Amino acid sequence: MTDKIEAELLTYAQLIDLNSAQKMSDQFQQIARISNSRVTLVDSQGRVFADSEKDITTMENHFSRPELQEARLKGKGKSIRFSQTIGVDMLYVAIPMKSGSQITGYVRLARPLHDVQSAIEKVYRSIFLAMMIVAVIALVIALIFSYRLAAPIRALERFTERLRQGHPVGPFF
């Protein structure tokens, strides 16, 4: 699921990179809403010049962020880490914006991993429920088998009790 989200965010980042920075900043909120992610534009020095969720004047330099460094070196980058701004685990992806062969900045998209965590919790609940059902079925089967295995022992016990009390002996089954 994380890989699917990553691929989706990278596709959106590549589409954003096709437009000019000025054109993007005019439609920034719409781009963030359509991509269902936080969109950040960073210049080649790491200074944020546009962000869909936070005031850029209060944001620190992003050049050392792992996803930007990986994008600088490999052409695309990703990172999963806790966001201090939002307070949840986020998946970040970044690609470089280029003019010719020169990197002019980075497009970074981030999405909270609520969906992934919800899916994992749902799987855990399903596994737990399945284990409980199997345990109950196994307990019922074990009780049936133990009752059937103990039946001859109970019959033998009744037979010996009748013998001890002096009753006539008949078949004990």
List the helices and strands and how they pair.
Layout: H1 2-17, H2 21-26, H3 28-35, E1 38-43, E2 48-51, H4 66-74, E3 77-82, E4 89-99, E5 102-112, H5 114-165
Antiparallel strand pairs: 1-2, 1-5, 3-4, 4-5
The largest beta-sheet arranges its strands as 2-1-5-4-3
Sheet with the most strands, sense and barrel status = 5 strands, antiparallel
Q: Say what the CATH topology of the largest domain is.
A: Beta-Lactamase
User: How much of the polypeptide forms β-strand, as a percent range?
Assistant: 15-25%
Query: Nearest-angstrom radius of gyration?
Result: 33 Å
Q: Can you identify the CATH superfamily of the largest domain?
A: PAS domain
Level of helix content?
Answer: 40-55%
Structural class category: alpha+beta
Q: What is the number of E strands?
A: 5
Distance between the termini: 62 Å
* Tally of individual domains: 2
CATH architecture of the largest domain: 2-Layer Sandwich
The SSE string, one letter per element, is HHHEEHEEEH
* Low-pLDDT runs: none
> What does the average pLDDT come to?
82
Helical stretch count? 5
Shape: rod-shaped
User: What is the top-level CATH class of the largest domain?
Assistant: Alpha Beta
